[in-house]
Amino acid sequence: MKIAILSRNKSLYSTKRLVEACNKRGHEPVVLDVLRCYMDIAPSKPEVHWKGDYLPSFDAVIPRIGASVTFYGTAVLRQFEMMGSFPLNESVAITRSRDKLRSLQLLARKGVGLPNTGYAHDPDDIKDLIKMVGGAPLVIKLLEGTQGIGVVLAETAKAAESVIEAFMGLKANIMVQEYIKEAGGADIRCLVIGDKVVAAMKRQALPGEFRSNLHRGGSASVVRITPEERATAVKAARIMGLNVAGVDLLRSDRGPLVMEVNSSPGLEGIEAATGKDIASLIIQFIEKYAKPNQTRTRGKG
């Protein structure tokens, strides 16, 4: 098959591994900088061009679209979908999962466990917002933040009020969540492909840090997950409509809680921690399910 990988950097670990897996299994990978793709939006013959050349339809497209280019990247992916290419993750599913507030609302509607979360616009509502999520300590998150950036732990109600007021003063969109103390600064990244968790790792924050992101210096180790955690991860990915997802869970006294569902999970940390060839599993999924004109919106919202 001819497979397009939408990635802005060929040297990124995940991109290189996907190229290697394609070549290993006899496919023809083409890495495309999504910002250099441009579209002819025509009703009769939609086209994508790249650096002056017309791109024919690919059998499959693997989107590795960064959060900062979600709007343009999903537009390009949608164009390939219109041309009949099979998307590993559909454009509408990526857009759905990238909106943190919307994704939590969709998960809550389906009964998935979540940290208590609040969202408000007016500074006059801050005190009740803090009370609503169980009081301090609590976590304040920028809706546009990634890799732990824009995430603040407020130890006291006064500190929470000050941070929330500051973000609101800057017109930043934030949400407030309860702090899950029993998680101990750790979370679990479940890598879901199709309807199966194919790998899982525990990410542990550095001492004195509550953010467990590997980009923030956290460590990763293989972990055995429970049937409930496995079912929660698969359900969360399905609700978002994602074929491949990194589902981040917190272990709490009331069961697994979903923090986030990532539509472009990095492969380096989880392959190193588990020793599994995730890239090849992704290509095998494409081999099994890629058919022309099969794009459909899975899930709702």
Keywords for this entry:
alpha+beta, Rossmann fold, Dna Ligase, domain 1, D-amino Acid Aminotransferase, Chain A, domain 1, 3 domains, 4-stranded parallel beta sheet
Describe the overall structure.
By secondary structure, the protein is α+β, with helices and mostly antiparallel strands. The chain has 3 domains: 2-96, 3-Layer(aba) Sandwich (Rossmann fold), CATH 3.40.50.20; 117-179, ATP-grasp fold, A domain (Dna Ligase, domain 1, 2-Layer Sandwich); 182-288, D-amino Acid Aminotransferase, Chain A, domain 1 (2-Layer Sandwich), CATH 3.30.470.20. 32% of the residues lie in helices and 27% in strands. The protein has 9 helices and 16 strands. It has helices at 13-24, 70-82, 91-98, 100-109, 126-132, 157-169, 227-240, 268-274, 278-289; strands at 2-6, 28-32, 37-40, 47-50, 53-55, 60-63, 86-87, 117-118, 138-142, 151-154, 174-178, 186-193, 196-204, 219-222, 244-252, 255-262. The strands form 4 sheets. A 5-stranded antiparallel beta sheet has the order 14-13-12-15-16, with helices on both faces. The chain starts with a strand and ends in a 12-residue tail after the last helix. The model has no long low-confidence stretch (mean pLDDT 90).
